[in-house]
Fold each of these.
Amino acid sequence: MKKIQFIKESLKNIKEVGTIFPSSKFVVAKMIAPINFGEKLTILELGTGSGAITKKLLEKMSSDSQLICFETNKKFYQELQQINNEKMILINESAEKMKLYLKEFKIEKVDYIVSSVPLLTLPKEKTHKILSISVEILGKSGKLIQLQYSKLLDKRLKSYYSNIDIQFTPRYYLPAFIYTCYN
Ligand SMILES: C[S@@+](CC[C@H](N)C(=O)[O-])C[C@H]1O[C@@H](n2cnc3c(N)ncnc32)[C@H](O)[C@@H]1O
């Protein structure tokens, strides 16, 4: 998808998309840095957009790993359908439905949740559901990697996770904070 199409789609749904540009390569690099790709992984990606992070994840994940992507926006979903990769399952549903799909696919352990859903601009109830379901799914062994454009959600994230590492990159149109959270 061309950057201009991403911008148009974002402007139509700014609260849902949360930014007007796809993640830069600098943001993507920081989002995938905490992941140990040397083992078979199950990763959930929340808010795949046009696939900036998705494509890098697929490139790095071993052939027996699995990436399950949730994207609510129809246009982005259609764009992502063009990625033909056996490791990826693409779902045009809200991240709140994660648990239902894990049950359907009989997946019991998730190693990482890589999320760029705009937790600050989504309705509060939705944000709460996504965070509480994520922490439950990850248990003691998994990690949430969450992209944010401000530090306003720090307190909220700290109420779900006892360990939080924050990385920052100014190399994007907005300052980007990358949170790695685990218990
Ligand atoms: C900030 S954009 C990030 C897009 C892409 N991952 C990137 O880094 O360029 C957030 C994405 O989350 C999607 N989104 C918003 N709410 C969602 C939800 N509840 N479940 C799944 N995706 C959602 C939006 O449609 C948008 O594509």
Note: The chain has one domain: 3-182.
Amino acid sequence: MTRPAPTITDDNRGFWEAAHDGRLVSQQCSGCGQLRHPPRPMCPYCHSIEHELVELAGTGTVYSYAILHHPQHPAFSYPVIAVLVDLDEGVRLLSNLVGVEPGDVHIDMPVRVTFDETEAGMAVPVFEPMGSST
Ligand SMILES: [Zn+2]
């Protein structure tokens, strides 16, 4: 069983289409240049509604994490590592950490993006320790 597909909205469509293509992107405000995530219609800094999507390197460090045991969904194998990643460009992303034992995760761990397939042929960005090869 694969992960449930992401729910597509007018705001996040570009993010998920990029993920489908194996690219991690962020909204960048056309008014003030700030990056923001998750995708939303208005800049929280200058209130501009104009933005573009810019590609990110997909590398960062673990800001925080939690080891999830319950409640369980049949599409995931447990425990699931929920992680907040501070990307090198300054965007913080909520995701999963894969390819590492829960006991080996630590704050500031260098990670890089990879993509997990979902239902409906979509993909979701997840992270793995830098230097691993999944
Ligand atoms: Zn702005």
Note: Residues 29, 31-32, 34, 43, 45-46, 48 surround zinc ion (CB under 6 Å).
